[in-house]
Amino acid sequence: MHSPKVTGAVFSLILSHSWLFTAAILVTGMSTTMVYPGAISLVRPTHPDDTDWDEVYFSQVTCYLTFNIFNYLGTAVAGLVQWPHGSGTNSQAGHPL
Questions:
Q1: Is residue 39 part of a domain?
Q2: Angle at 59 between CA 53 and CA 61, to 5 degrees
């Protein structure tokens, strides 16, 4: 099967149509990566017992698990709930997405 060659003009055309969505994804990803670890690091155990678990590992493990669990759930929901509903083709161009 032969794949079409993507030129700079085609890339520029695609980017000119999708720049707003691309910027939104970039800002969301950057703000999540900057704010989330700082906010979750303030979480402390409700019953500390002065062990290495409480002092060293609790914050890191909690940050890692909550971020990845909710990232997975968000990805799963986004795969199940798709909007706008359609036939899987781009109605403006008539090409499959």
A1: yes
A2: 75
